[in-house]
Amino acid sequence: MRASIALTLGVGATAAVVVAALVQAAGDDPVGTALSMAVPAQYQGLIEQAGNTCPEVTPNLLAALIQQESGFNPRAVSPADAQGIAQFIPSTWASHGIDGNGDGKRDVWDPEDAIPSSAKYLCTLAREVDDIPGNKQHNMLAAYNAGPGAVRQHKGVPPITETQNYVRLITARANETSGGGKAPDTQRASIVVNAARSQLGEPYSWGGGNASGPSKGICCSPNGSTGAVIVGFDCSGLTLYAYAQAGINLPRTAAQQYAVSEPVTKPLPGDLVVYGSSAASIHHVGIYVGNGWMIDAPRPGKQVRYSPLDTMRDLFAVARPGSHHNKEI
Fold it and tell me: How confident is the model at residue 84 (pLDDT cuts 50, 70, 90)?
């Protein structure tokens, strides 16, 4: 039945009610659904949020790393005195640990501090080895295990058996599905989300963006803003680009993209989030990333960013484009 979430809940449903329903509908295991191993429920929200810290880190990759490091044991201690759920050695924790839960303490034994610290440290390492040839995620993981100096010395993953196995195992787990096999739809959604993440920080450009990436836009938006001199994305340009990387050719506008998609009541990362008072008046679209957040190109003067689903008051539906609706590239 093609009915929007808002209509399913009732015409008078507020955006807050719709958002709450979407978060609840997402299920209790938003991270584990894309992993072969179970993620303990008490860490799922932490991993989903921290896994959006930078483009090189995803919730799946962060969950796989933490399982590899400690098996999700917050009291784990290694022979090298690496401590806690993310296995920080004391000197690294002293320089990179953060107060993730805002309680005034940086506690390596507290997953609410250690998990976001792990993500932040991964992002720091990604920047430190950004100019090294090869796969950026592999180099980042290798730096987490062996140190950025080793990655720089060897111009990539160093020839250390432990480090090479570490990178291989985490990467494999991060790309597995809960059933242990490769699911094309899951892989496609991961490509869409990662493509959107790769454009974080790109400027908003009215009419900007295509299947190849950011581009100059056109004139003019309803408030008179022009994209003709700005290389970037508008909302539907970003979604068009992200889906193109997964082999799905979406039409250009938010309303057209919704029209070729199926509304869903159980949103998954990669789905489209659309805003408007009706299907005919849809004016904004973003890409759902989980736990009530999306990546979108919000408006003139802003950049591609993470936004909560209630960033606008007229959330209409979450919808899923499918290859049976779209010509594949």
Answer: very high
Q: Give the tokens for residue 179.
A: 């059933």
Query: What's the pTM?
Result: 0.52
User: Above 60 in pLDDT, residue 250?
Assistant: yes
Of 156, 174, 192, the residue at which a domain comes to its end is 174
Show contacts of 174-183: CB within 8 Å, 24+ apart: 174/35, 174/58, 174/60, 174/61, 174/63, 174/64, 175/60, 176/34, 176/35, 176/36, 177/33, 177/34, 177/35, 177/36, 178/32, 178/33, 178/34, 178/35, 178/36, 179/36, 180/36
Residue ending a domain, choose from 147, 174, 201 = 174
Q: How many domains does the chain have?
A: 2
Q: Is residue 14 part of a domain?
A: yes
Domain presence at residue 329: no
Residue 77: φ, ψ to 5°: -135, 130
Percent of the chain with pLDDT over 90: 56
pLDDT tens by residue, 280-289: 889 999 999 9
Annotated catalytic residues are 69
HSE toward the beta carbon, residue 101, CA cutoff 13 A: 14
**Residue 232's beta-bridge partner residues?**
215
